Amino acid sequence: MKKITLFVGSPRKNGNTSILAQALEEKIDKTRFSVEICYLYDYDIKPCVDCRACKKNDLVCILKDQMSQIYTKLEESQIIIIGTPIYWFGPTAQTKLMVDRFRPYFVNKKLSGKRGALILPAGSGEGDCDLTIEMFNRTFEALGIQQLGAVTAKAFDIGDVKNDTSAFEGIQELADQIHVIQ
Ligand SMILES: Cc1cc2nc3c(=O)[nH]c(=O)nc-3n(C[C@H](O)[C@H](O)[C@H](O)COP(=O)(O)O)c2cc1C
Q1: How far apart are CA 161 and CA 13, in angstroms?
Q2: 2-179 falls under which CATH superfamily?
């Protein structure tokens, strides 16, 4: 059984990112994959302070907070999906808090060989997602994570995404890509 964790980096639990994350979860074959949706705003995640402790000894982060639970989820998952609305052409602050704390993985390589994908709603749609896609392409590459793709959506108010049929086609394509993973 392979594990998929879908990280939702929107503060709106019933918002567009969540709707797409739940749509993907519903499409996944549960006989082969376990799926967990993890709402990042439920976690106290301190910012990386560049102490460089993770470059020494056990190669782990020494900050004490709820990121320890997220580290466990990341390491147990074969497929890591990050859903974040676009805030000012980038991910939300809570998502970036998590990503900055990926620093130990740059050295200990524990995420290497995993698959990653993105779910990105934005008020203006795909055009405002380019920098975030590029940021994650490079981040995943640095960590040895194979990028499966990015689903973008045009949505502003809660629920708008339901009118974006191409976003749901993207979710179906992502599910299809996941299902061919052995
Ligand atoms: C602080 C803030 C900044 C935003 N910046 C952008 C932006 O740069 N481009 C864009 O297209 N939408 C932007 N939006 C709109 C959100 O991406 C959009 O409302 C999205 O659907 C929210 O997703 P959610 O429902 O999952 O929270 C911004 C929203 C907020 C609150």
Answers
A1: 14
A2: Flavodoxin domain (3.40.50.360)
